[in-house]
């Protein structure tokens, strides 16, 4: 007899584990973004990790038998479908490899060599970002509650007008229909928004986990699909300052699992200090 997922009970940690939770999570992320073989029988190790900074779409890897591997490159999926909707955000795979490998070494080295300063910096950075997001969500919740109160007042007025004969039954049904639909949507959204805010307030940073991984991976020489997903949440590619230029600066932001984006302005990790003000998000 089959039961729905909602009716099933799950009891965690009741049997000895065969693999660590960390390995399980990495495997699930690799499986989630299936790296299908291309016509060249190769796989994209960055599958599901690289995003366009402007439209948020995945970046697509382009390869061909007719061109050197050094010219393999990523472009925005939206741009590929509709050249008017976004720009290319062109970046060669070999260039991205250099950027990611250098940044991964930089951040993991800082975590190993200055763990206390690194943890303090990440903790204050996350606190700043978390508080900013909580404030944004709270503003949205306040707007929802205000609109709900307005709709309640409108509906009450319409009902009174209907009872007193100021409007016909048909008019009442027509006018109240759209308001009721919006009212129901807001009523359903408010609990979800409250839960999201509560979840943010309970968020615990992943600095300890990142420090543990940094201590275990001390000599990173090659990027693999598993290593990328072990450390990296996503990679955001911006358009070049001069479109299609070979030499114009291009911003690439790497967001690490559990700790987020670490700006290159903190290249000298010995000077890391907890943040006192909001951190700018630019890196070049």
Q: What can you tell me about this protein's structure?
A:
By secondary structure, this protein is an alpha+beta fold. It is 48% helix and 9% strand. The chain has seven helices and seven strands, in the order H-E-E-E-H-E-H-H-H-H-H-E-E-E. Helix 3 (93-113) packs across helix 6 (207-216) and helix 4 (115-163) packs antiparallel against helix 5 (169-201). The model is unreliable at 275-284 (pLDDT under 50).
Quick structural gist:
With 284 residues, this protein is α+β, with helices and mostly antiparallel strands. Helix content is 48%, strand content 9%. Residues 275-284 have low confidence and may be disordered.
Main beta sheet, described? 4 strands, mixed
Radius of gyration in whole Å, from Cα?
Answer: 25 Å
Q: What distance lies between the first and last C-alpha atoms, to the nearest angstrom?
A: 58 Å
Helix content: 40-55%
Strand order of the largest sheet: 1-5-6-7
Our estimate of the beta-strand percent is 5-15%
Query: Helix- and strand-based class?
Result: alpha+beta
- Give the SSE order as H and E letters: HEEEHEHHHHHEEE
- Round the mean pLDDT to the nearest integer and report it: 82
How many strand units?
A: 7
Q: Which runs of at least 5 residues are low in confidence (pLDDT < 50)? A: 275-284
Number of helices in the DSSP assignment: 7
> What is the molecular shape?
extended
């Amino acid at each position: 007899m089959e039961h729905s997922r909602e009716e099933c009970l799950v009891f965690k940690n009741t049997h000895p584990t065969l693999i660590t939770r960390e390995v399980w999570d990495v495997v699930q992320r690799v499986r989630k973004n299936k790296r299908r073989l291309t016509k060249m029988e190769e796989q994209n190790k960055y599958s599901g990790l690289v995003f366009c900074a402007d439209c948020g779409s995945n970046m697509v890897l382009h390869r061909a038998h007719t061109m050197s591997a050094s010219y393999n490159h990523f472009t925005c999926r939206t741009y590929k479908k509709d050249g008017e909707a976004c720009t290319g955000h062109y970046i060669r795979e070999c260039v991205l490899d250099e950027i990611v490998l250098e940044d991964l070494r930089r951040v993991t080295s800082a975590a190993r060599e200055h763990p206390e300063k690194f943890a303090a910096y990440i903790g204050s950075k996350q606190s700043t970002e978390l508080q900013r997001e909580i404030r944004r969500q709270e503003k949205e919740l306040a707007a929802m509650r205000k609109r709900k109160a307005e709709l309640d007042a409108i509906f009450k007025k319409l009902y009174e007008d209907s009872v007193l004969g100021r409007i016909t039954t048909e008019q009442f049904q027509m006018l109240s229909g759209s308001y009721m639909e919006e009212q129901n949507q807001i009523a359903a959204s408010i609990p979800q928004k409250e839960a999201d805010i509560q979840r943010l307030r309970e968020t615990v940073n992943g600095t300890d986990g990142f420090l543990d991984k940094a201590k275990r991976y001390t000599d990173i020489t090659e990027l693999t699909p598993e290593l990328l997903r072990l450390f990296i949440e996503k990679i955001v590619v911006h358009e070049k300052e001069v479109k299609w230029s070979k030499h114009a600066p291009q911003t690439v932001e790497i967001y690490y699992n559990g700790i987020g984006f670490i700006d290159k302005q903190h290249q000298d990790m010995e000077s890391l200090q907890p943040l006192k003000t909001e951190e700018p998000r630019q890196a070049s």
